[in-house]
Predict the 3D structure of the following.
Amino acid sequence: MSSSPLTTLPAWQALQTHAAALSGLHLRDLFAADPDRFARLSFSFGPIRADYSKNRIMPETLGLLAELARVRGVEEGRAAMFAGERINTTENRAVLHVALRNREERAMMVDGVDVMPDVRATRARLKTFSDAVRSGQWKGATGKVIRHIVNIGIGGSHLGPMFVADALKDFQNPGLSVAFVSNPDRAQLDEVLAHIEPGETLFVICSKTFTTAETTANASAARAWLTARLGEGAVAKHFAAVSTNVEAAQKFGIHADAVFPMWDWVGGRYSIWSAIGLSVILACGYDTFDQLLAGAEAMDRHFETTSLGANLPVILALIGVWYTDFFDAPAVAVMPYDHRLKLFPFHLQQLDMESNGKGVTKDGAPVETKTGPIIFGGGGSDSQHSFFQLLHQSPRLIPCDFIIALKGADGAGPSRDLLMANALAQTEALMKGRAAADLTATPEALRPHREFTGNRPSNTLLLDEISPYVLGMLIALYEHKVFVQGLIWGVNSFDQWGVELGKELAKSLMPALTEKGPAAAEGILQSRDSSTAGLALAYLQVKAQL
């Protein structure tokens, strides 16, 4: 990797010159000039077909971007990750979530030790435990079979499993319900508890340290609810845990057979492939989860072994850098045109913005460029009737990712036809726009309102279907995309220190907010700013009246 500042690199300056040269070109003209543009700028890998022809790029653009990736050490960074090196430099940790979906006999090393025996042993335990629960062999304290799974976590211990379980509803055991709780507001947990029977419920506590405030609050509340109905002895039959803190989990009352490990080389937003996926395994079966791993593994092998210019995660990453840094695009909109993927944008928000929302490089220097974009989105059909107005006519440039499954719940039926028509029409409208000259039948005063500039970029991912295998590929595709962008920007994509400050301040505020009244708290709040102290006292005044 070049040690020169990013913006002084010849590869960067060549891209600046190239971006200026393309600034006057419109996408509809690029398509008109090249009938083979789609063939040149699209890519198929297994069940995923990626069309990136509706971008403000030429074939040579990708060559220039690939050169930037080379000089920024993407190939070396990729090799270092797969080699188990401690690339999370601020926490001195390896980053080896790829080992979790490694299903080959290949060794994966951290500090000279092959982690795969532990990974395989944990997989075997997950299969044994989930098979016992799903078959009815593992029963609750009253002898009833488990019919309800409640996942208690937050962040990566919540968003990933919730998204995957929802996306794979077609594969769930109809005799098992699965719910996800993350918010310490008791309204969420109470809503779940109101619809389940304690003797038929298994709670899965997902906390790497078993000390996360929100998770432990919800876990304690769930425990109190259960023991009030079934007694203290029921905890061991109705709770499982995923944590590095086995001692704390067992002290909580969880049986050793139901405590599953994590490793410090797995970040929370990359942990769905680990035992954090237990709720998914319980709901959908271990074989389904294994296919999810297989799909991710296939994308890993492609990412690891394919040259930069033909590498799908790299291509999408480079296009993202192109817009963030050379067109000042502040955000990326992600629209799945499939109800089963409706939660994917929420998972991506954490994956991308927690990874690359950084203001300093790995060596602690301020970043020279824009880094992680704002990620937002939602189901495509609903989004068309909300924020798509901004995408089409706002002065802001917002690149878009459209994700479409060719086969839906009704196969290739009428609903899929309508979804496909809408998705393709939106990408075409964003690209082409509509000129004033095409509005001759419209009153002149209305023409500016009905004109669309077009020239707005998008990628389209066509998925053969929403299967566990394809879903695994899709998630891993975006994971590697985010990693590549972090390497180019020179940031650490695997820490999240920005999350910690708020946690520390919340912890220091708790003694004031748990006091009996405002007078007792005033001394504690004297060191806070007037806004924070004033709001805390207002809360305590209301609390005292309740």
